[in-house]
Design a protein that fits this description.
It contains 3 helices and no strands. The chain has 71 residues and is mainly α. The longest helix is centred in the last third of the chain and has 16 residues. It is elongated, with a radius of gyration of 12 Å. The N and C termini lie far apart (26 Å). The mean pLDDT is 84.
Length: 71
Amino acid sequence: KEKLLDFKREKEELKKLLLILAHQGTKEAIKLLEEFSKRASSELKDWAKLALEECKLFSQAKPGQIVKIFH
C-alpha cells in the first residue's frame, strides 16, 4: 500500500504495482486501486482505471476460472 501511494516513485514502478494489484481480485486491492485512481497523476489515470476494471473482473471470477480481458 505504501509503495503504491508513494507518488514520488518512478512511473514505471507504479505501473508494475498497478498490474500486480489488477490481478489480485480482492476487496483490499479494489479499495487501494480506487484510492490511487482518485489521486493519480494524469499520466497514470488510464493505467489506474484499467487496473481497477481488471481487478473487479478478477474478483468476480470463480476459483480456477480463466479470465479473458479485452481492451
